[in-house]
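Repro:
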Amino acid sequence: MASSAWQSVLSVHQRIVENGDKRTDAWLFVYSPVPVALIFLGYLLVVWAGPRLMKHKEPFDLKGVLIVYNFAMVGLSAYMFYEFLVTSWLSNYSLLCQPVDYSTSPLAVRMAGACWWFFFSKVIELSDTLFFILRKKNNQLTVLHIFHHGPLMFNWWAGIKFVAGGQSFFICLLNTFVHFVMYSYYGLAAIGPHMQKYLWWKRYLTSLQLVQLLMFLVHSGYNLFTECDFPDSMNMLVFTYCVTLMILFSNFYYQSYLNKKKQK
């Protein structure tokens, strides 16, 4: 029985590695889902064990690290946004229906490269959770935060493995812009309390994320009900994930702003 189950797992794994985009197979963490699965399990272990290990320790002062990290993420987000914008523009991408170009043309490979950086940025962003734990900001380890960071890697791994380009560019383009704004806020906030008077726009970050998710829903939903040479399975994955995130982000917005305002 166990042997049969293991053979089934190996068979599924073989189909996955064989049916991916051959252009991206050699890129870091792409060929097999195993490395990403191990990173995810390591992430869950850190989320579980980290607060317990820090329980009787003083929080770390990571001010310098956070300033460098957040502004490095601002730079990476700006670079990815530029790459997605220019490559899609030069390739005359359609906003409504854009199949993946699996060729080895310079623009197609450049788009695939931008998609890889987008996927890898999601691995880097797991550091957000580690920083919360080291600073003993355990109230930040919400279901929204963990769900947003952990399982998200599998979505974008599937993207770079099977659909590095095409419709994927729309999500990546919007998300890199949102993350440029978000990490700019975090970077400025990390400088010190005296920056708070310039950060009155904090609440609008959540609004921006909700608008972004709504646009993803409309975009992927439109393609689910129209003829487009792009996998419906990927559109369904995006659609389902965005519905879940919209519920979690809406609850966060209500609890953080509307409910507090009502209590005051």
